[in-house]
Amino acid sequence: MRRLIRWAIILGVLGLVGWGVSAQVAYWKDASKVTFREGEVVRGKIVAVVNSTGPVKPVQAVSVGSVVSGPIEAIFVDFNDEVKKGQLLARVDQRLYAAGVARDKAALATRKAEVDQARAKLQQAKNDEVRAKALRAENKTFISDTELDQFIFNRMSLEALVAVAETTVQQAKANLDTSEANLEYTLIKSPVDGIIIDRKIDPGQTMAAQFQTPELFIVAPDLRKEMHVFASVDETDIGLIRDAQQTGQPVRFTVDAYPDDLFEGKIFQIRKNSTTTQNVVTYPVVVTAPNPDLKLLPGMTASISFQVGKVSNVLKIPNAALRFYPQPKQVRPEDRKLLEGKTPAANDNDDQKEATRSAQEKAELRRQRNRRHLWILDGEFLRAVEVITGLNDSHYTELLSGDMQEGQKLVVGIQPRN
């Protein structure tokens, strides 16, 4: 009897131990089980964009300078004033230039008087020559050959003197024109209709224009009509930007001054003068935008989105599903070959592989870059589904083809353990 009780106790203890071990194994199995996060295939529109930043500038900024030197006598405009073409902006002290005009006028009058004097002497010489020839025709003994030559050459000399005097008149007239032009240059006028966006002088300031033209004002025409935004676009996106320009895709941007306002423009120009900074090549892209309310001011920084494509009513998949990369043990055996050679350890030499690939291989890989694999739950494992993708935005990617239906669940990540 005691033996039976002893064996019963032993068997009971062993049963309790076995139950505890199995419970512990089940607990750790459940604790180590991976819980996947899932997304959903939905239908809607996708707007693909290329983002950039750049300064806002006027379409044209006309620099107004001074050709003449001297102190600024008066300024008639200020910052932000709207001016018309030919409007007086400032005046340089005119006293020296007015005196120069008066001097050259007097010099011109003197030269004209000298011409009149030379012409009078020439006329007298011509009359003397005519009389001398008449006397010689009457009697050769009245005027000798030498005397006749003197009359002829005196007339020729005075004709040359008249020509010289007339040339000096032209020279004096040119000097007067120069002095009058310099006097006119003391009146600084606007060359275009526009708005004064910068004023770099003050009354009383002296300018020296001998070596270079000093800049006095900057006038921006047509600020209300349009403004330009200069974006720097990476070389990898220039092809997309060019296609967007050819298809007339819009450009939208914001500025910090009006964070709630969305401005819209269009691609005006893709310039070919590239800039290289730390081995990154960018190209300037000029965007034109209307500015009727003058909200866009020169120097503002714009955050720009170039629309490079748009599709509506298409199936789209979460971008997180494309970024998800499972471990081989999480994938059903027949799909594990898709992961061969693509583990993170195998990607360590991708840069070296890329450097050894031919141009043809690189082009082929780029053509196949839209062929991807997504993962869906199939029992305890993940099953791969091959798809071809299209346009993408910040959240979704267009599904061009693949065994996917609207509302289907996709694995987008692993749920972290609590």
Spans with pLDDT under 50 lasting ≥5 residues? 25-31, 343-348
The proportion of strand residues reads: 35-45%
- CA-based gyration radius: 46 Å
The ordered string of helix (H) and strand (E) elements is HEEEEEEHHEEEEEHEEEEEHHHEEEE
Terminal Cα separation, in Å?
52 Å
Report on the biggest sheet.
6 strands, antiparallel, barrel
What structural class is derived from the secondary structure elements?
Answer: alpha+beta
> Under the CATH scheme, which architecture of the largest domain would be assigned?
Beta Barrel
List the helices and strands and how they pair.
Layout: H1 2-31, E1 36-40, E2 42-58, E3 62-65, E4 70-75, E5 82-83, E6 88-92, H2 95-138, H3 145-185, E7 187-189, E8 194-199, E9 206-207, E10 215-220, E11 227-234, H4 238-246, E12 250-255, E13 258-270, E14 275-277, E15 280-289, E16 301-318, H5 319-323, H6 350-356, H7 359-367, E17 371-378, E18 381-392, E19 396-402, E20 409-414
Helix pairs in contact: 2-3
